[in-house]
Design goal:
Protein name: Protein ROT1
Order of helices and strands: HEEEEEEEEEEEEEEHEHHH
Radius of gyration: 20 Å
Shape: globular
Bound molecules: 2-acetamido-2-deoxy-beta-D-glucopyranose
Strand content: 25-35%
Helix content: 10-25%
GO molecular function: unfolded protein binding
Family: Belongs to the ROT1 family.
Number of domains: 1
Distance between the termini: 50 Å
Largest sheet: 8 strands, antiparallel, barrel
Membrane topology: Single-pass type I membrane protein
Transmembrane segments: 246-263
Length: 271
């Protein structure tokens, strides 16, 4: 613990080696460069999680978190998490979030990620409750109190510890790709009134003109029922997280209680 603490204290200074300096006094240390993912190693940044051409989030096979950082100040993040449902423990909701943009190591050792605000996406799905999914823009600047890159003694691969703004540790992530696997770091979804002359013409042309209406980030964003899949053809805004998969997550959460309550038939087990 002592070793760990002193290591963490020394890290901000080590980071300065080989780091570039930004105009704001922040730096981009190289030890954090790469694509990192939690143990499930199934949620990864890049085209496997968000498809900007169809404007869809693609559901990974397991929940997890992934961050990618480049040495020139770009980041991308992918979250796929189950949300416990206290009223119906076997029936959790799930959330997928994707963002990319700029990151920097601040002078006090904290990290700031600043997303490109028109590009972030969130999909919230609670199939058991109401069988609805809500697909919206997502724009959340994040501050991490500090980070530490070490070699994991058990797996012998680089591991990243990120600490939230309040100092609480996030799930440990391991290095999956270096250089990182990321989507283009430029704005993927330029708005009609925005940078219409940007170089990403193809995407601008395909645009989000149809999708823009329901993508407003509002608490009362439109809800779509499961029967509305046809609407997906219009703007690709109707998305569903696989309810069966969520059910499995719920089962893991409730353990044997869930199994006994729901019975073996629901599990597809023939006794
Ligand atoms: C994680 O997944 C990637 C891509 O499938 C693979 O290349 C890598 O070896 C995996 N890493 C671990 C630690 O399982
Ligand atoms: C560290 O610096 C960042 C960026 O300047 C700032 O937002 C944050 O509040 C600072 N944290 C502390 C603990 O001072
Ligand atoms: C995105 O978040 C930032 C920081 O909170 C805010 O300044 C900006 O206006 C937001 N953009 C949109 C489109 O909501």
């Amino acid at each position: 613990m002592l070793l760990y603490t002193s290591l963490a204290a020394a890290l901000p200074f080590l980071h300065l080696i080989g780091a570039q300096t930004t105009t704001s006094g922040g730096t981009w240390p190289t030890d954090i460069v790469g694509t990192w993912s939690t143990k499930s190693n199934q949620t990864l940044t890049g085209p496997g999680f968000y498809d900007p051409f169809t404007d869809r989030l693609i559901e990974p096979s397991r929940t997890g978190i992934s961050y990618s950082f480049t040495s020139d100040g770009h980041f991308e993040e992918a979250y796929y998490r189950a949300i416990a449902n206290p009223a119906m423990p076997s029936c959790p909701s799930a959330i997928m979030q994707w963002q990319h943009g700029a990151w920097v190591l601040n002078a006090n050792g904290s990290l700031t990620t600043t997303p490109i605000d028109v590009d972030g996406r969130q999909l919230l799905s609670s199939p058991c409750d109401s069988d609805t999914s809500v697909y919206t823009r997502y724009n959340q600047t994040e501050l991490f109190e500090r980070y530490a890159v070490t070699t994991d003694p058990y797996h012998n691969i680089p591991r990243l510890d990120l600490f939230s703004f309040d100092g609480s540790p996030m799930n440990v992530m391991y290095l999956v790709y270096s250089p990182p696997q990321m989507l283009p770091t430029t704005t993927l979804n330029p708005t009609a009134t925005g940078t219409a002359t940007s170089t990403s013409k193809a995407k601008a042309k395909r645009g989000l003109d149809n999708a823009d209406v329901p993508l407003n980030w509002k608490p009362n964003a439109q809800f779509f029922g499961a029967g509305d899949r046809g609407a997906a053809a219009d703007g690709g805004v109707v998305h569903h997280i696989n309810a069966d998969r969520l059910w499995w997550i719920g089962l893991a959460m409730t353990g044997m209680g869930g199994l006994l309550y729901l019975g073996p038939r629901r599990m597809g087990i023939t006794l």
